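REQUEST ID: PR-0412
SUBMITTED BY: lab tech R.K.
PRIORITY: routine
TASK: structure prediction, single protein chain
INPUT:
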Amino acid sequence: MIVAMSVGLTNAQTVQRQVVEEGGTGPFKSEVVGDASCTGFTVYRPQNLKELVAKQGALPVIVYANGACFNNNVEMRLLLSEVASYGYVAAAIGPYDEADVMAQWRGVLKAAYPETKGEVIMANGEKILPLTPEEKKAREAEEAKQREQAAKAAKKTKKPQPAAPQFPTYPKMLLEVLDWLTEQNATQGSEYYHCLNLDKVAAMGQSCGGAQVLAIAYDPRIKTCVMLNTGIGDMEMMGATKECLKNLHTPMFYMIGGPADIAYANAQKDYERIADDIPVVMLNSKDGHSGTFYEKFGGNYAKAVVKWLDWQLKGQVGQSALFLDDEYLKLKFPEWQGVRKNF
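STATUS: complete
OUTPUT:
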């Protein structure tokens, strides 16, 4: 089991640090830190945190859960760093890791690249295209060959196949790190002492991480949820089911990758089932299940997330246009589709 706080360490203690994409495009350049008192998580925050808080006041907080419920947040590093540069402190499940973000894209993105997306330029400048029909056929043939070989090997050995491994993370980790941030905010001498506005907390998750968000969304400290390429539908995952939708009490934002996104159908079911007293917005792009997370500064998904958080947690009503005004949405993101209810 992963424990949020290490025994014997009380105050936050930054022991690792890096800057991604020169700290983002926001007014408060960000950094990624690992903390000795919270080794199971990575914190994304503005640099010179104390100086910023002295000028701007305490910052809103984000707790984040990863796609595939991984214990690693590198895939979302560009987006989280970008969001932090707009004045947020985000604590993401997974220990600090200096792995190269772009080293992951081929296995993650190319495997399910949507034909609708066309050419994109990744954060490292590389141009990516969808697989050609020939490439798809070759990949399918290779996958079929691998399945056949695995079946033959299993039949030959006659050994029972091992059970699928348990997920290395669990939903309450989001609440555990929120507890840690709350303690640090109240502890004199901590790096986060009086730096966090714990009345302004967002829970955010991608894919399986969205199920983890739904599982803890009942917590009254959560003031909004951001659901990236995710939806529970009729599934049961990480202890979350469609029954969790009845526990929602905050505005919800679903950012989905269109019909090419494997979460698309489930997200539509969630949208229909969310109660009539819960404001909810769903935007659909053509980016598929991997969104724009490997594009420079997290791409357009990061822009949408910042606008939602600025509206919901900072009260910047002008940022609501993307979510409430169809003409504005079409102007900013012509290929996106948006729906909303209960506003």
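NOTES: The longest helix spans residues 133-157.
REVIEWED BY: pending
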